[in-house]
Design brief:
The protein is mainly α and 299 residues long. The longest helix has 27 residues. The chain is globular and about 55 Å long.
């Protein structure tokens, strides 16, 4: 009898975990946690394992909560789009009330974990949730400026790690914020380009001109250039304790040039294949750039 119960419970638990991972967007949340940990390692005078664990746990909770709130608000729109119609809420696998309980629990756990590190970290985490759910989410169906608003909470994690390590906000975390802020635009517009038809089914306005045209591609180029410039500024010794060696700056510059080349190719070809290449290049860039920054500090 116990064997039968265990056999029945295992698939149920596996499905529940799969739904939890999907509604919190686990892969996205983990990438955000990675950015936060990179910022912590850059700012920390000495590494404390407990602080790293609190930051990782609290960061996942905050991102997860934002994603759950987002899916609650957009449940009807998600049902209209192919890429989101099978999410836990629109598919009927999870009720809105259950999702809301998860979101509130994650919010509380996240804020408490970050507050233990220091109040400033908790404050920025709370601001991130507020902007994502109360500003970015409702604006997505109103104006392409939603991407600009969404880039603010999207850029907080890299900065958040530094604040968690130092309990200070200055030019160093501000620079980390600006790097990830400008990176958001080519990344999300490349994604928006690929998924434009699906986004339109849900009524989302993601591309800056509303079209997959040269105007959108030109803005992608401009924001990529700004991202590239700010990424190497620490090599000039004007960003306080956030420093970058010349060899590391050259590596980051070359990685950024790969993104810029794909941005120019998108301007020329204006097709989904090139947009996908740019999107993948942007994911590689943000991860490798942070790795280079951290490695450069410790060698």
């Amino acid at each position: 009898m116990k064997t039968a119960v265990n056999t029945a419970t295992a698939p149920t638990l596996a499905l529940a975990m799969a739904d939890f991972k999907e509604i919190t967007k686990a892969r996205l949340a983990i990438s955000v946690v990675f950015s936060s940990l990179a910022g912590y390692l850059l700012g920390a005078p000495q590494i404390e394992v407990v602080s790293l664990l609190l930051l990782a746990f609290g960061g996942y909770c905050m991102v997860g909560a934002s994603n759950v709130y987002n899916q609650i608000i957009e449940k009807d729109l998600d049902a209209l789009m192919k890429r989101t119609e099978n999410r836990p809420i629109p598919s009927g696998r999870m009720s809105v009330n259950k999702a809301l309980i998860i979101a509130i629990l994650l919010t509380v756990l996240g804020i408490v974990s970050l507050y233990i590190l220091n109040p400033k970290t908790a404050m920025f985490g709370a601001i991130s949730i507020f902007l994502y759910t109360s500003c970015y989410t409702p604006l997505k169906t109103k104006t392409p400026l939603a991407v600009f608003v969404g880039a603010i909470p999207g850029a907080i994690p890299f900065m958040l790690g530094w604040v968690a390590a130092t309990n200070e906000f200055g030019i160093e975390p501000g620079t980390l914020f600006m790097i990830q802020f400008f990176w958001q635009f080519p990344h999300f517009w490349a994604l928006g380009w690929m998924l434009d038809d699906d986004y339109k089914r849900g009524g989302f306005k993601m591309l800056p001109t509303g079209k997959k045209d040269k105007g959108t591609a030109l803005q992608i180029i401009m924001y990529t250039i700004w991202m590239l410039v700010i990424s190497v500024i620490p090599a000039f010794g004007i960003t306080g304790r956030l420093q970058l060696s010349i060899p590391a700056a050259v590596i980051i510059f070359l990685m950024g040039m790969v993104m810029l080349i794909f941005a120019f190719l998108l301007y020329e070809k204006r097709d989904n294949i090139t947009a996908r290449k740019l999107m993948l290049a942007s994911v590689s860039y943000i991860t490798l750039m942070q790795v280079v920054y951290v490695v450069d500090k410790f060698i």
